[in-house]
Design goal:
This protein is α+β, with helices and mostly antiparallel strands and 152 residues long. Helices cover 25% and strands 38% of the residues. The chain contains 3 helices and 6 strands. The two termini are 22 Å apart.
Length: 152
């Protein structure tokens, strides 16, 4: 488990900066491997990735695993910045690939559909070129939240 600061800031932008400072990434080593960036738009998390040959299948399009990683990550981070669980895990992820994901910028967005004490449910979308661009893929996910006893 990464070493994080004892007290994480309340402000989402400060939180992302604290995570980057403590661990070198916001979401862990796979962030560096894939090359995506975590951004905030107001209080909403976005994941940005420039799709290139590293992410391509033998068809020249983004591999589905790269697409699912972006969707899962944005859903989880959207929950994390709101709840700050001690840790969390994806327990269900269902996706729909609507259009081929070609090389170029893609942006993953998420919203929380329901937030319980131990499970959060989200909806995510992957957009071409910009956060409000054409939708390439969608997903819904559930995340198991593990909280310290003092978190309620």
């Amino acid at each position: 488990m990464p070493i994080l600061p004892d007290a994480l800031p309340e402000d989402p932008a400060d939180l992302l900066a604290a995570l980057r400072s403590a661990a070198g990434t916001v979401t862990g080593g796979f962030e560096l491997t894939l090359g995506y960036e975590v951004h905030l738009a107001g209080d909403d998390v976005q994941i940005w990735l420039e799709i290139d040959d590293r992410h391509a299948s033998h068809y020249g399009l983004a591999h589905g695993g790269a697409t699912l990683t972006l969707l899962d990550t944005v859903g989880g981070m959207e929950v994390y910045v709101r709840v700050r669980p001690s840790w969390m895990a994806t327990i269900n992820l269902a996706s729909q690939f609507l259009e081929p994901v070609e090389k170029g910028l893609v942006v993953a967005t998420a919203s929380i559909d329901r937030l319980g004490k131990t499970v959060a449910h989200t909806s995510m979308a992957l957009h071409a070129r910009r956060p409000d661009g054409p939708v390439l893929a969608t997903a819904v996910a559930s995340y198991r939240l593990f909280r310290n006893p003092d978190q309620g």
